[in-house]
Amino acid sequence: MNGVQRESPALGPGPGAAPPPLADGGLRVVALGGIGEVGRNMTVFEHAGRLLIVDCGVLFPEDNQPGVDLILPDFRPIEDRLDDIEALVLTHGHEDHIGAVPFLLKQRPDLPVVGSKFTLALLAAKCREHRQNPVLVEVAEGQRSTHGPFELEFFAVNHSIPDALAVAIRTAAGLVLHTGDIKLDQLPLDGRLTDLAGFSRLGDEGVDLFLVDSTNAEVPGFVMPERDIGPVLDGVIGKATHRVIVACFASHVHRVQQVLDVAAAHGRRVAFVGRSMVRNMGVAADLGLLRLPEGLLVDLDLASTLPEDQVLFVSTGSQGEPLSALSRMARGEHRQIRIHPGDTVVLASSLIPGNENAVFNVVNGLVRLGANVVHQGNAKVHVSGHAPAGELLFLYNAVRPSNVMPVHGEWRHLRANAELAVRTGVRRDRVVIAEDGVVVDLVDGIARISGRVEVGHVYVDGLSVGDVGESTLSDRLILGEGGFIAITVAVEATTGRAVAPPTVSGRGFSDDPKALDDVVALVEMELSRTEAEGITDTHRIAQAVRRVVGRWVADTYRRRPMIVPTVLPV
Amino acid sequence: MNGVQRESPALGPGPGAAPPPLADGGLRVVALGGIGEVGRNMTVFEHAGRLLIVDCGVLFPEDNQPGVDLILPDFRPIEDRLDDIEALVLTHGHEDHIGAVPFLLKQRPDLPVVGSKFTLALLAAKCREHRQNPVLVEVAEGQRSTHGPFELEFFAVNHSIPDALAVAIRTAAGLVLHTGDIKLDQLPLDGRLTDLAGFSRLGDEGVDLFLVDSTNAEVPGFVMPERDIGPVLDGVIGKATHRVIVACFASHVHRVQQVLDVAAAHGRRVAFVGRSMVRNMGVAADLGLLRLPEGLLVDLDLASTLPEDQVLFVSTGSQGEPLSALSRMARGEHRQIRIHPGDTVVLASSLIPGNENAVFNVVNGLVRLGANVVHQGNAKVHVSGHAPAGELLFLYNAVRPSNVMPVHGEWRHLRANAELAVRTGVRRDRVVIAEDGVVVDLVDGIARISGRVEVGHVYVDGLSVGDVGESTLSDRLILGEGGFIAITVAVEATTGRAVAPPTVSGRGFSDDPKALDDVVALVEMELSRTEAEGITDTHRIAQAVRRVVGRWVADTYRRRPMIVPTVLPV
């Protein structure tokens, strides 16, 4: 992998605080992603010389990572030990838990991937797009499986996707429980409760290390049951007199189920819109996770010809993604679906921080076309998939762990989760906040930070992985803010004399065609100077040009475009 | 003004839907900013051939406007009629209402600017930075002033800045009331209530057109009184054992007053941090709007030497601005203030949509350094300055307008506000949603859209206004996403033969030094082809190079950098 400097061997010492060798019989835990950020979850466990990985997801880029499609966990600490990996366990099928699997499988195609039926079905669909044929090991709640020195036991957990699992890991070093993403809906739509009884049994046995989802640790209280959204949707859709479009996450089978049930109750037929929605709901229906009443589903072209009060569209695009179906509707550019006054659009989804402007642009576009837009800001059409503080307390009191390691979250979430652990009686010095790369060793029942391995951001841009790094991003940020001014000069190689007037052009700098008119004379004057000084080295000439143009643009415009001189010896 | 095409004369016809001449005795209303967006509020009123302007603010750019510092209202529709302007009325001193005044004064330096004492003091400070000496006309609630055919009456309104005014405009065409930014705090800290009684008196007289703040129209209910934040701050600051830093808006005098009072009650001395905070609080104290107990205020250098439990800092940076004092503290880069474990940081402010990632980055940085961070997500340390639905209903019922025009908001806010007007009994066909540039004529007591003038975004970038337009921004977006690949070729002018191998370089494209190694041969092959075809025109050669490199990069990398060929004839 290019673009990420290799400095630290497998789970070995990193710069500054190299971890010592793992004590005999101990268990080592290192997150390669997902702690200190929300996304690209990946945790590596090491015991008796063997490795186990839990989850392998992607992170979506922020504003300061322009042009990046995805961010992967940093595989470097395990690249030299790929053959030591016993298995990859996937807790559920969300992108931030499975999205990076194809990139890991490229390095180790025969790695056994362990997960529930729905999780593996989503993974298989993803791997097909990458032309991969992974080794899948299907498990279910209540089952156990053994992978080298790691004995696993799986527990049902409730989340915003079906068939999610928590995993208990037994080794000679002790008992570890990893929640994955979790909440405690006490009236889940599919009746599949988070197995608090199982967690209590583990607690009786003695949990040495508890890794806990931190996403909602700052939020007080409890999540409303998913099924309580049904009546709200019924109220909104029942009152609608024109078309209804519901946007939600393409993996939220239970949310979609409720929309379908309400549509059926009000005599509306349903069409799925958006590639991932069509694909995932197909998978869910095949596995019996989505109940589709006979004749309810119609194809999009047919749906768009049905009377307005007899149709409902379930669409992607709830995060304002500019290319999504919903964004195209908001701009009046969707091929089959035009928004008309009186239409109802429901955003049955969260608003992921950072997406606000994109989502509100879509909402404003829809409102401008006359749609009535319902979203979590004005109706209870969404509940979170992550346990807030009140539910986390239940978890801590069931598990009664000796050591706690908050996972899945930014620093504010991790700290809030740590405080909850302490309030339930966990010793403060046994709560370990270990961001990505921090090495935690569980030895003799005590978890301690023993060092750090270097982990960075690994960027996917187009077809390649890792060749876009911090230096490229920093250039993109400069170019994106101020554009560039390019100056090309041909000089006699022997004398350094300019053989023609310099060519000056700017992009992303100004709409004014005269904006750079003064630069030619400025550069010519500087070239006379360098020639007079006998400078023939093209790098030195280029530097002189960069300096004089940079100073001019700062004085004249108070801007900082990139200055790109090219000096051609002829 | 460059970069904005001039197509429409003063309040005259624009493309597509030219408004007819204003009927005799009528009143024309056009927003040049602030409707369909949150910011750059500016409304122009025309009557009997004369103009009156209410507010002249700036808008802050979004992600798709990179490198832009500010966005101004589009002055083009009034540029030919500057001498017809009787006055500019400022409702209050926020940037989105006064920030663009210096740019208007550049075109008409003697324009009378009418506003309250505090509003004009903030404007004067701003104009001093622009070396301007505006003509100021101070007014207060209860007063009247006449400007040509416009008779104005001012009313106290309550907002998140002191001394805000609503303005009633009487002409032969009827009575207009413009709320400015408004809320109905019934227990305001300074006892200065929004003058609902005055509005009711206007309602008795008959309000023909009511322009109403829409910002919070989507939010149900009422705003908690500002003074109820005091006890919350007292709880947080009273419990603090180390340093306390409170960040809030630099113009929110009442919020700062409550912080100062709590600091004094707990034996903490106070230092202001950040240029705008120091300046605005100086102005407020001079005008008697901020009470500063003797000896409370200390200078920053002294404050940073005081015992940790005897100091409190009031800082800018509540929106995560990267150069602000608070951001520098979060990165450990502030010269005088280092964050230590146990410090308390309070963000006593809203979270403006689009700023979430920046603010949470600051919060995470502070938490990582050990600070306890209190914000509106975990404590009631902020209330909005804008009337939500419940308060807007009070306004409509007091004013009982015949025509309504929602202002200050995106489409979702405007539509929600319109519905509130209708629910209080305003005829639906008398509620006019008129985004920027839409011409509304009030004639014979009825407000109707009569056409549209062209208004665009006017960008300020560094020292110049208007030369950065949509084409420059579009280039910046391409460069920011993918960087560029520059290819420079010197060719014989007569034959089109390359005289040396092409120079190829990329910026913002890849960290891999070999990423573009194949391009030289690719371009050489294309140059052989163009030469063989007898092509000598440098533009055609450049186009051929752009095409072949663009196709190569799309196939090889699936990316779209800008391709910048330069062909030098020598």
TrEMBL record, chains A, B:
Q: Which cofactor does it need?
A: Zn(2+); Ca(2+)
Residue ranges of every copy of the Metallo-beta-lactamase domain listed in the record:
39-233
Q: Transmembrane stretches, by residue range?
A: none
Q: Which residues bind substrate?
A: A250, S251, H252, H382, V383, S384, G385, H386
Q: Which residues carry out catalysis?
A: D213 (proton donor), H386 (proton acceptor)
Alphabetically, the GO molecular function entries are: 5'-3' RNA exonuclease activity; RNA binding; RNA endonuclease activity; zinc ion binding
Q: EC number(s) per UniProt?
A: 3.1.-.-
Protein keywords: Calcium, Cytoplasm, Endonuclease, Exonuclease, Hydrolase, Metal-binding, Nuclease, RNA-binding, rRNA processing, Zinc
Q: Which GO terms describe its biological process?
A: rRNA processing
Q: Name one GO cellular component term.
A: cytoplasm
Residues binding Zn(2+): H92, H94, D96, H97, H159, D181, H408
In which compartments does the protein localize? Cytoplasm
Q: Which SUPFAM superfamilies match?
A: Metallo-hydrolase/oxidoreductase
Q: Which domain of life is it from?
A: Bacteria
Q: Where does Ca(2+) bind?
A: G67, D69, D461
User: How and how many cofactors are bound, per the record note?
Assistant: Binds 2 Zn(2+) ions per subunit. It is not clear if Zn(2+) or Mg(2+) is physiologically important. Binds 1 Ca(2+) cation per subunit. Seen in 1 crystal structure, it is not clear if it is physiologically important.
Query: Which EC main class describes this enzyme?
Result: hydrolase
Query: How would you summarize the oligomeric state and partners of this protein?
Result: Homodimer, may be a subunit of the RNA degradosome.
**Similarity remark:** Belongs to the metallo-beta-lactamase superfamily. RNA-metabolizing metallo-beta-lactamase-like family. Bacterial RNase J subfamily.
Entry function:
An RNase that has 5'-3' exonuclease and possibly endonuclease activity. Involved in maturation of rRNA and in some organisms also mRNA maturation and/or decay.
| PANTHER family with a match to the protein in the record | RIBONUCLEASE J
The entry's protein name is: Ribonuclease J
The record's gene field reads rnj
